[in-house]
Amino acid sequence: MPAIKGTDSLDNEIDWFCRVLDTRIRLYFEQTCDYDSIDEMVPPQLKGDDSEYARLIAMYDFDFDERMILILALIPHLRPQVLDTLLITNSNTGRGYVEFGGWKGKVHGGFLPTCETALFLLAGSDLNRRIRVMRYFDESHPFHHHGLLTFDDEATRETIFSRPLGASMETVNRCTTGICQKPDFSAKFPATRIKSTLEWDDLVLAPEVMDEVANVSAWIKHQNTIMQTWGLGRIIKPGYRVLFYGPPGTGKSMTATLLGAETGMDVYRIDLSQVVSKYIGETEKNLANVFNQAERKNWILFFDEADALFGKRTQTSSANDRYANQEVAYLLQRIEDFDGIVILATNLKTNIDEAFARRFQSLVHFSMPDADDRQRLWRSSLNGQCKIDDDVCFQQLAERYELSGGGITNVVRCGALSALRRESDTICHNDLVTGITKELRKEGKTL
Ligand SMILES: Nc1ncnc2c1ncn2[C@@H]1O[C@H](COP(=O)(O)OP(=O)(O)OP(=O)(O)O)[C@@H](O)[C@H]1O
Ligand SMILES: [Mg+2]
Predict the structure, then answer these.
(1) Is residue 245 within 8 Å of residue 303, measured between CB atoms?
(2) Residue 146 DSSP label
């Protein structure tokens, strides 16, 4: 089997860790030691190293202390026996050494580190250094903020540093297999990544709608200039919140995915009708999970079926009650505080009151396409390799039938099926009319 790229880098890093650990123990217990300080143990050179581990260190520009903390958190996954030294019993107390921190898992037989372990390794009994190291456990540090490490807050928190220190699955995978996983949909993570095979040229929108959409994409590209270089971050709230509203099949989802593709951001769709009804009680926690990840990963959050929100809000009676529903209030607050891109999509256009609208930087109305746009939609839908009979007149179809872009796509599918069932390789007018009849019937209309 070929060696996995990056194993050498991890090997070297663990060896370095072992040397620091050994030196710390010797210095602490005043045993013979070739060094006066752990700082003499220079960390492995990672320049020119193209492993994912080295890339992670370079990306955050981690220093000696941060590298020690990271590898300490990874060691139980990579070479757990390295920490066995820390299991020794203090003969004075008959127990483990308090200053080593650590905890024992239910199943894992070895030593599992806590923040205290990291403090001991790096600072020993040097209080000054200990205080300096503490800041790596702040919520603002990437270890926490970017979810590189896990700090089990639910564990008994006798002191903040008795919290178990672990590496997130994502970090473990990234450093070992080099794979940066994308999370999968689950009750705990009620979001799905959406992509489109379509391109901007396929999108048919009225110019004013296109202009609003261009604003969103300009924000994504230029937010740093606006917020930092121009210093407007002082007065402008970070993030960009957009509401897409309009009838079904008018391109709301498609536009969200195109914005993602254009700006290189992943788009995650959260079906609010599901979230609000299905995960009641758990909703806040699960949504928090999505928001936290999204912030770190620079995703576009696309809340679909947002009518579920308006529904909830309008069910309540008095005006003061409107935001009483906890989940909705929570969601709106998170949306407002989120410093990335949030797009909400809904079919309703009524019920969007001022209080709600104020929270959004743009409200984009996806209207039904007019006859000219419908003609463009017909043409672009059928410009592939399939053959079209001469009796098909796009202009006539466009003028006669009020269909949405989604409707036209459905008709094209139906028309293609109809042609093939006639054992023909050419779609004719009647094939399309069969589809149109069905499509209009869905909307409660007749030909
Ligand atoms: N404006 C448009 N331009 C080009 N194609 C469109 C447009 N609107 C819809 N389509 C086609 O219809 C499909 C469905 O559209 P989409 O899912 O984006 O609609 P939507 O507005 O999100 O509808 P819903 O409200 O039902 O979620 C698209 O994948 C695309 O093929
Ligand atoms: Mg949609």
Answers:
(1) no
(2) T
Tokens of 207: 């110019």
- Asked whether 101 and 116 are in contact (CB, 8 A), the reply is yes
**Higher-scoring residue by pLDDT: 196, 147:** 196
Strands (E), 374-428: 387-388, 426-427
Q: What pLDDT score does 278 carry?
A: 54
Is the CB of residue 407 below 6 angstroms from any atom belonging to ligand 1? no
Residue whose CA lies nearest to ligand 1 atom number 24? 248
C-alpha span between 423 and 427 (Å, rounded): 11
Rounded to whole angstroms, the Cα distance separating 358 from 347 reads 19
pTM strictly above 0.85: no
pLDDT tens readout for residues 236-287: 888 999 999 999 999 999 999 999 999 899 999 988 777 665 555 566 777 7
Q: Which amino acid is at 48?
A: G
Q: Are strands 89-90 and 95-96 parallel, antiparallel or unpaired?
A: antiparallel
Burial class for 415, CB neighbours closer than 10 Å (0-12, 13-18, 19+): buried
Instruction: Tell me the two tokens of residue 352.
Output: 């969007």
Ligand whose nearest atom lies closest to the CA of 404: 1
8 A C-beta contact, residue 167 and residue 149: yes
Mutate to test the pocket of ligand 1, among 196, 250, 412 (most ligand atoms within 8 A of CB): 250
Q: In Å, how far from its chain's centre is CA 261?
A: 15
Three-state secondary-structure class, residue 344: strand
For residue 152, give the amino acid letter. D
Beta-sheet strands, E only, within 91-184: 95-96, 149-151, 165-167
Find out whether 359 and 241 touch, Cβ atoms under 8 Å.
yes
Q: Given the DSSP bridges, would you call strands 362-365 and 240-245 parallel, antiparallel or unpaired?
A: parallel
Mean pLDDT across 329-338 = 84
| CA 396 to mean position of chain CA atoms | 45
CA dist 92 and 272 (Å) reads: 59
Report which residue type is found at 188.
Answer: K
Q: Which residue is closest in CA terms to ligand 1's atom 19?
A: 249
Sketch out the chain's domains with CATH numbers: 7-176 (no CATH), 192-365 (3.40.50.300), 371-442 (1.10.8.60)
What integer pLDDT is reported at residue 371 of this predicted model?
96
- Indicate whether 314 pLDDT > 60: no
Q: Quote the pLDDT of residue 272.
A: 77
Q: Is 202 in the pocket of ligand 1 (CB under 6 A)?
A: yes
8 Å CB contact between 388 and 382: yes
